């Protein structure tokens, strides 16, 4: 029996009823425990949401517990498996009824049938067909929806308005061809047209998807790498051409060195990053205040931004919860239009549906991010993808191509390594 039930039984005085979470008349006010990640939502937002939710659901009480991203994967797995009762380190043994997880983490939690299937609610009540694909697709397994999209973030182009103006460029590019032309005009006289690290594989993934390619494909229940296919090779070729218009290292990713610092030094006209990185840039170089602009990663045609990797969070419900209806009510409220757009405005996120993007139109960086999110994608929806990223062959492939190796040969090698990592031994 859960600790909260025992607590209710200990209340023997009428004066203690409200403190024990009981409603007038003696009915129990059930607690729904929610795990949210640190910095996903402000304390002020959570207080407003809790007050409103409990007002609308007088039989429920919210207990929101903030979790750290570090080590969260193992912690969630243990809770779902029943190996840990809950948040022991905070003296809170009750297991969670709702959990925020990274969108690409959902496949590893679906394994074993430990998440509640929310397909019916998604289709009937929540407008699931309108969700951003980069959030919705990783939450699915064989057309069943387990992860419910909450918020998204993705890369845009952060650029120097003053350097664009000095080069006579009056508007951001809208196609990839225009982007190359503009970047070439910006490259020179001590300025990089773009700072693009050689192993920024999330950005490469967008170019591959834009060409109609994939990182990996599934056939007959088996996954295999797909970098050697013509569409994926075209995406890599565009990356190579763009990378050549700057001095980004061929053998490092965007964190080595941190590209915010490189951009803040004033030696680059553009970077590809989430808009929030602008804060770190301005902290390093306040003289750039008012000089930064944002535009969506350009696509192949002017009518549609380029594909981008979508990060963000989904909400899941453990199948073992004994607060099923309460948990579903929390998910419905947090991911519904009212609170989802409120969170997006509060935290500069992208809402979970493209049609909600006008809610963040007032922020240039977030508006650019929302435009790109409509073309957002996620990594292959298989639990084994984590093994690919652990020893990422895509990074090594990119470096090989950027330093002159044959793209087709290196793509075949990288695809073979991806296939090996994705292959599960049935025996």
TrEMBL record:
It comes from the Bacteria. The keyword Acyltransferase does not apply. Keywords: Signal. The keyword Signal applies. InterPro entries: Bact_solute-bd_prot1, SBP. Residues 1-18 form the signal peptide. Gene3D superfamilies: Periplasmic binding protein-like II. PANTHER family: ARABINOSE-BINDING PROTEIN-RELATED (PTHR43649), DIACETYLCHITOBIOSE BINDING PROTEIN DASA (PTHR43649:SF12). This is Extracellular solute-binding protein.
